[in-house]
Amino acid sequence: PLTEEETPVMYEKISKYIRENLQLLMDRLDGTYCFWLHNDLVYYLAANISGNKLVSLGTCFGKFTKTHKFWLHITALDFLVPYAKYKLFLYGNHVLKSGLGQIIENTSQYQGVVVYSMSDIPLGFGVAANSTQECRKVHPKATVVFHEADIGEQCVGHEETLTSNEVIAKTYGLALFPV
Fold first, then answer.
1. Tell me, what's the pLDDT at 123?
2. Would you say 97 and 128 are in contact if contact means Cβ atoms under 8 Å apart?
3. Are strands 122-128 and 70-72 parallel, antiparallel or unpaired?
4. How confident is the model at residue 161 (pLDDT cuts 50, 70, 90)?
5. What are its GO biological-process terms (predicted)?
6. pLDDT for the residue numbered 132
7. What is the pTM of this model?
8. Which tens digits make up the pLDDT trace of 18-37?
9. Which regions of the chain does DSSP assign to beta strands (E)?
10. How many domains is the chain partitioned into structurally?
11. Is the alpha carbon torsion for 166, 171, 177, 179 positive or negative?
């Protein structure tokens, strides 16, 4: 499990995106979930799994850096989306004012936001560079979201985020065979 120092750091990062809905992420209708640390990577998994029945470890939510900061991985996106309080919709691929299609009212500056396409598909997450009111006034080439993670990283940076089966195989010295 996470240590007493790591838990608040990670919870602070996640609550930027889902605020008080963090408790809903932990106590879901289908069971209680927890975060588990393995080799500086944090995994989200069911809390009631015993070690002797462990087949898979869960979903990688992020990692701790050497300076003890927590970085969210894009694999956490599907779990953050249902609880996101602040959303931003894009017309295209750029996170500039000219590519902004819609922003939820009352989004404050430096607020964590989940980024969607105009067809309501979650694309990633970032930090709002401006509040909702400021976004209406800024230059079309101004940045409105600072990038944190997007779905393209699953293809490019996949060697850093191991699947849970790869983690288990490395831990116990097992070999994985392609199916």
1. 85
2. no
3. unpaired
4. very low
5. ribosome assembly
6. 92
7. 0.65
8. 888 888 888 888 888 888 88
9. 27-28, 31-38, 41-46, 59-64, 70-72, 87-90, 100-103, 112-117, 122-128, 145-150
10. 2
11. negative
Cα separation, 76 vs 14, whole angstroms: 10
Range of the domain at 21: 6-80
DSSP bridge pairs for 72: 62
Regarding whether 143 and 91 lie in a shared domain, the answer is: yes
CA separation for the pair 111, 16 (Å, rounded): 6
Rounded-to-integer distance, Cα 146 and Cα 129, Å: 6
Tokens of 7: 């838990």
Q: Do residues 147 and 124 make contact, with C-beta atoms less than 8 angstroms apart?
A: yes
Backbone angles phi, psi at 112, to 5 degrees: -70, 130
Tell me how far apart the alpha carbons of residues 158 and 141 are, in angstroms, rounded to a whole number: 31
Residue at which a domain ends, from 49, 80, 111 = 80
Q: In this structure, are 56 and 13 located in the same domain?
A: yes
Decide if pLDDT at 12 tops 50. Answer: yes
| Residue owning tokens 């393209």 | 152
